[in-house]
Amino acid sequence: MSIDQVDLVSRYADVLQIGTRNMHNFNLLAACGCTERSVLLKRGWSATLEELLLAAEYIINAGNSNVILCERGIRTHERYVRNTLALGIVPAIRRESHLPVIVDPSQGTGHAYMVPAMSRAAVAAGADGLLIEVHADPEHALTDRRGAVHHAGGIRQGDAGGFGCRGGTRTGDATAAAGVSKGGPCAVSVRPDWPAAPRPRRTCGTPRSRTLASRFRACACTFRSYMHKSRSARR
């Protein structure tokens, strides 16, 4: 996404996602900060905690306090995973910032079989939510087929038992309900009280907006329901 496309995307998307390669694109950060849309800021693959929080400051200083931080793994020397999912940053962010933080175990590992275990670890670490690649037929997904989680029976709008979408809210480049047939991310709410119960503010300016509840949770369901359905499918 270029700066010229920010206004156009904002007309149709509920959340603007800034990927890992654009975390240091300060002009894009400022442009997204001038919109009223929530911004999902992914950690750069070699960025430190301080650099991630400072990148969020660019968005907030431009006038948009609806920022969601995302840990999606960092580049290390390991070869058995696509990236190393550094979950230690989750409690660190919760200590240093008032901003919500979610974890992307699909991009963080690159392997679907690791997603359930790393999702549980992210929840235990205190993550506010999860971002998981879901596909009805992962083997034929156009992108990220190795990291996509199979959802038996597909994803139906309003399905509260899986990665259902209530209201058809769009997340970035695809809707949670329709986009999964092509392969796409789906948000999963972990904490039922998030973001209604804000943490003490340490850095990054103004308090977060409660409008995140309606925008982010619109394509969310509980993590426990997903795990129960996954176990049932394996049986």
Tags for this entry?
globular, alpha/beta, 9 strands, seven-stranded mixed β-sheet, TIM Barrel, 235 residues
State the separation between the terminal residues, measured CA to CA.
Answer: 42 Å
Q: What is the name of the CATH topology? A: TIM Barrel
CATH homologous superfamily heading: Aldolase class I
Nearest-integer average pLDDT: 74
- Please count the helical segments: 8
Radius of gyration: 16 Å
| Tertiary shape | globular
Number of separate strands: 9
**Which CATH architecture would you pick?**
Alpha-Beta Barrel
CATH class: Alpha Beta
Tally of domains: 1
Instruction: Return the structural class.
Output: alpha/beta
**Which sequence of SSEs, written as H and E, runs from N to C?**
HEHEHEHEHHEEEEEHH
